[in-house]
Design goal:
heterotrimer; A alpha/beta; B alpha/beta; C alpha+beta; A: alpha/beta; Aspartate Aminotransferase, domain 1; Aspartate Aminotransferase, domain 2; 4-stranded antiparallel beta sheet; 14 helices; 17 strands; about 35% helix; about 15% strand; B: alpha/beta; 7-stranded mixed beta sheet; 3-stranded antiparallel beta sheet
Chain lengths: ~450, ~475, ~120
């Protein structure tokens, strides 16, 4: 007997009798014999105690560093209550809410999540949810090319290179054309955009705060896009929009990005959660799940998945997106974070992250080893130049227990001396002192 | 006491549920011109109010620890608690940009999980970067496309999808830039070989198959199908949604499949979370290994490395390494089940399905009366004289605290009721379910209106779905 | 048995065409609305768009299904029935009274390729 499998010999015998076969292997009679008789080279069964020992061993092979980098994954504080709530079996073990009468819990938090995303982005409607910020941006591209029936999309060069890679991959296989808009001194080159924008362009994808942490003026692209009837797609770290001008205020048609920085732990890159929000006009072109309000047979307010005719299980090959299971539990995570931190707390965590990043940059520049790469307002990532080699910076940081900056020469030869730093509200003054101290003594 | 508030409806201006330390770091004001004009109206509640709200909201959900969840094609097996404890370990809460030398434990989990999945499936290498089943399908089809592209075989623009396939299959084909070609099923739900031969040609990139298929039948001619497709120059894609019954019994790789995805949130016990996070690892045969997406985790001389460049890769399909937190849970499960018990998982799920099928087929219409695998499909009640539909039966089951089976899928049967009882369910539970299904069938005969009006005991009754779609209210502000 | 109106033209994709003064009014049949169920949204084209016979120009969504609207004729859409924007259920209530678009026909002889009521009835059986 094995703890996850309750059948006794007696049960099996009784059940086989009802089925009318004598041996459980008879239930696999139609599978060609040549495919059976496996001898698998897999680990043997571990008891719970052995599992803990095995993972103690694996845990010891990781060295957790204190991060002084964000670049798309931000080390924010997670209030204790969130784990307790999201691990309730009602949330954790349930399926997609296709049976609304017994899924009002999931449906209600999805509705609350949509409300929170629309508050933060200033958009009319949000879905729940996308895999991550990168794939959400690629889906926004599909939405634009689908809605506009145009095959070309413009992408600013200041978008995070990982997101650009995902966009390029999705576009290539679907047969879409991606053209990159040049950057000028850390921001999107508006002149290059105007030169490349025309009536074949379905939309422009820009990021703000961009990859370098710089807050861009994305609103300037609205008018030229109106002339060519293209869509403005703005990628933002969702939490930063608690302070910064929203995509909605700047005339975006689609707002996308990652919501990880609303308290989702780093967990080595995932699960995180992407979001996608848009205008009422484009609502029915949106991918993913949407929850709406209705009434039940007794007139009671109730929630239900709606506008499902957009989705793969109905449209099949005519669906504009194939998304099915996404990151629902993370939507709950973000919803609870936004609730318990609340109207003030989300802003405070983000402002303190900005304060820490600004302080870090100033202190690092004061060591004489670093200088600002761009003279522009940034949020919680900041690009600094240094004559130190990336290898020296990385190894020195690790030696002192820190995860240092991301070396941008990895993505662009022109940025071979540029490093992307970042800090959050979790970094203490002592940690920053210690980190800066490394560079002072050199 | 029925709780029906939204979090916004208990919000009180000025109330707080958090505390952050004073860091002593000087404030760095952001220029007002860069700031939003009005604050986001997020809730303002205390910590206890937050807990009470989301606890009360949770009571309106059904979960695996509450009751039986025979949802076809979803494999709602027990989600072990130990998996969660392991994934929550502080040692795994690491920034994804940490250098490989500092995350050897993380990379070992990644590498070992993909190795065990390879062994169980018969494919040679896996990426774990894909986030869910549909994402895996997309990645697999991208690999299929690049394989043909690299051989200069550019006319292969079509992918064959059986009519009984999951909706994601044709949708993924479209998103990957293919046209899908439907092939009809035989009466027993298996692929119609003559029909298949008709469509095979030099414009076919490959075929997507679910095996056992969505009506729970194993494609017994799979070896012949594989030969036909390969002869025509196409590749075979395996939709792993239905892998559970074959676990430890037979392997897609040995059947001739070249590419597949696995749903860790189905076969390998990671929780569905109300619709994710899932994880959809994609496996390929060795000749396609270089196409797996970046970043690639490798093992070289007992050291684990990360290849961010992988020049032949299809590209990048995720920001980092996928839902690695989900992978940790699946790895825990793989180690727990182990060599000794994998085949029991497959066999007991099949035993359960056949037992239910045989125990109910006198009252429910069984269009395919044969040994099934882990799931099977009834075409509604056998006695349709009272016009009680599959929807009515499903809603009535709610009153008996059972999660209804999957309904109206697959599309090949009009009143489809698709039942999948995972291996973690005991005979007692299954017998109870059978008794309830029989009772509902009886009610449909004696008091059809009772069934048509169900449910009665749930927190809400049947909903007006048309109203929700005609006049979409999709956020709190729309209500006020 | 769903309703079929004599004197209209039909397609095998369940659209009807009524011709008046060189203009074609296009709608969906009773059979179509019945199989779709409760219609919740009609995706309408913009006025002054050119359509070609056999090409889709919009879509109809119900709670559980979606269907493209295929133009039976070639021409230019001159008027769109805006009422359907707010009241898509009109197509359920009376599919023959509520047309979807009015098209300025390019070539009236094209109508000969369409089905008559009797031929359409055979398809629906």
């Amino acid at each position: 007997m094995f703890k996850y499998l309750p059948h006794t010999e007696h049960d099996i015998k009784e059940m086989l009798q009802v089925i009318g076969v004598s041996d459980i292997n008879d239930l696999f009679h139609e599978i060609p014999q040549s495919l059976k008789n496996l001898d698998l080279d897999v680990p043997s069964s571990h008891s719970e105690l052995e599992i803990h020992r095995r993972f103690d061993e694996l845990a010891a092979k990781n060295r957790k560093l204190i991060p002084f980098v964000g670049a798309g994954a931000y080390d924010h504080y997670t209030p204790s209550i969130i784990r307790h709530l999201i691990e309730r079996q009602e949330y954790l073990t349930s399926y997609t809410p296709y049976q609304p009468e017994i899924s009002q819990g999931t449906l209600q938090y999805i509705f609350e999540f949509q409300s929170i995303v629309t508050e933060l982005t200033g958009m009319d409607v949000a879905n729940a949810s996308m895999y991550d910020g990168a794939t959400a941006t690629a889906e926004a591209m599909f939405m634009a090319t689908g809605a506009k029936r145009r095959n070309k999309i413009l992408v600013s060069s200041t978008v995070n290179p990982n997101i650009k890679q995902v966009i390029a991959t999705y576009a290539h296989y679907r047969g879409l054309e991606v053209a990159f808009v040049a950057e000028q001194d850390g921001i999107t080159d508006a002149a290059d955009f105007l030169a490349k924008n025309d009536k074949d362009v379905a939309g422009l994808i820009v990021q703000s705060p961009n990859f370098y942490g710089i807050i861009e003026d994305v609103g300037q692209f609205r008018a030229p896009l109106d002339e060519t009837k293209g869509l403005l797609i703005v990628n933002s770290d969702l939490a930063s929009l608690s302070i910064l001008k929203t995509p909605g205020e700047q005339g975006a048609d689609i707002a996308v990005g990652d919501a990880q920085s609303l308290g989702v732990p780093l967990q080595y890159g995932g699960p995180y959660i992407g979001y996608l929000a848009t205008t009422s006009k484009l609502m029915r072109k949106m991918p993913g799940r949407i929850c709406g309000v209705t009434r039940d047979a007794d007139g009671k307010r109730a929630f239900v998945l709606t506008l499902q005719a957009r989705e793969q299980h109905i449209r099949r090959d005519k669906a504009n997106s194939n998304i099915c299971s996404n990151q629902s539990l993370l939507a709950l995570f973000v919803t609870i974070y936004s609730t318990v931190m609340g109207k003030q707390g989300v802003v405070e965590a983000q402002q303190k992250s900005h304060d820490a990043t600004a302080h870090l940059a100033q202190r690092l520049i004061a060591t004489g080893q670093f200088e600002a790469a761009f003279d522009r307002p940034f949020f919680k990532d900041v690009a600094l130049r240094s004559k130190l080699s990336p290898e020296v910076i990385e190894s020195t940081c690790i030696e002192h227990g820190f995860l240092g900056p991301l070396w941008l020469g990895r993505y662009d030869d022109n940025l071979a001396d540029v490093f992307l730093f970042g800090a959050t509200e979790k970094r203490t003054k002592d940690e920053i002192d210690a980190f800066v101290g490394i560079w002072e003594v050199r | 006491m029925y709780y029906d508030k939204l979090i916004f409806e208990i919000s009180t201006p000025g109330r707080k549920g958090y505390s952050l330390p004073d860091t002593g770091i000087p404030a760095a004001p952001i220029d007002a011109s860069l700031q939003r004009t009005a604050p986001a109206e997020l809730p303002e509640v205390s910590e206890l109010e937050t807990l009470r709200h989301y606890t009360n909201v949770s009571f309106k959900n059904f979960g695996i620890e509450k009751g039986f969840y025979p949802l076809g094609s979803c494999t709602m097996k027990y989600n072990p608690k130990i998996n969660q404890d392991i994934a929550n370990r502080e040692a795994f809460q690491i920034h994804p940009l940490q250098p490989a030398s500092t995350v050897q434990g993380m990379l070992e989990i990644y590498y070992e999980t993909q190795r065990i999945l390879s062994e169980l499936s018969g494919l040679d290498t896996f990426t774990l970067n894909s986030y869910a089943g549909a994402h895996g399908e997309l990645v697999g089809l991208m690999i299929m496309k690049k394989y043909h592209e690299d051989r200069g075989d550019l006319k292969r623009t079509k992918v064959i999808v059986p009519d009984s396939a999951h909706g994601t299959n044709p949708a993924s084909a479209t998103v990957a830039g293919f046209e899908s070609v439907e092939v009809k099923s035989n009466k027993d739900g298996t692929v119609h070989i003559e029909d298949l031969k008709q469509v095979l040609g030099d414009d076919i990139a490959g075929i997507m198959l679910t095996n056992p298929n969505t009506v729970g039948m194993f494609e017994k001619d799979i070896l012949a199908i594989a030969e036909l497709v390969h002869e025509a120059g196409g590749l075979l894609y395996y939709d792993g949604a239905n892998l559970n019954p074959l676990l430890g019994v037979a392997r897609p790789g040995d059947m001739g499949f070249d590419i597949m995805h696995i749903n860790l949130h189905k076969t390998f016990s990671t929780p569905h979370g109300g619709g994710g996070p899932g994880s959809g690892p994609v496996g390929v045969k060795a000749f396609l290994a270089d196409y797996l997406p970046r970043p690639v985790v490798k093992k070289e001389n007992d050291q684990y490395t990360i290849d961010y460049d992988a020049p032949d890769a299809i590209g990048q399909i995720s920001h980092f390494f996928g839902n690695i937190g989900v992978v940790v849970k699946a790895y825990t499960y793989l180690l727990t089940v182990g060599k000794e018990h994998f085949s029991e998982v497959g066999k007991f799920s099949v035993l359960n399905a056949n037992y239910i099928k045989e125990s109910l087929k006198d009252l429910y219409e069984l269009p395919i009366d044969d040994i099934c695998k882990h799931e099977f499909v009834f075409n509604g009640l056998k006695d349709k004289s009272a016009h009680v539909t599959t929807l009515d039966v499903a809603k009535r089951l709610l009153d008996y605290d059972v999660h209804p089976p999957t309904i109206y899928f697959p599309l090949v049967f009009k009143e489809a009721l698709m039942i999948e009882p995972p291996e973690t369910e005991s005979k007692q539970t299954i017998d109870q379910f059978i008794a309830i299904m029989r009772k509902v069938a009886e009610e449909a005969k004696t008091d059809p209106d009772l069934v048509k009006g169900a449910p009665y005991t749930t927190v809400v009754r049947r909903l007006d779905e048309a109203q929700a779609a005609r006049n979409p209210i999709v956020k709190y502000r729309d209500l006020t | 048995m769903s309703k079929i109106v004599k004197g209209l033209y039909y397609t095998n994709t369940h659209e009807w065409v009524k011709v008046e003064d060189g203009f074609a009014y296009i709608g969906i049949t009773d059979y179509a609305q019945e199989s779709l169920g409760e219609i919740v949204f009609v995706e309408l084209p913009e006025e002054e768009t050119a359509v070609e016979a056999g090409e889709e120009f919009g879509a109809i969504e119900s709670v559980k299904a979606a269907s493209d609207i295929i133009s039976p004729v070639t021409g230019t859409i001159v008027v769109v029935n805006d009422e359907l924007e707010d009241s898509p259920e009109l197509l359920n209530e009376d599919p023959y009274e509520n047309w979807i678009v009015k098209v300025d026909l390019e070539d009236e002889t094209e109508l000969n390729k369409l089905l008559n009521a009797d031929e359409y009835e055979d398809i629906c059986e």
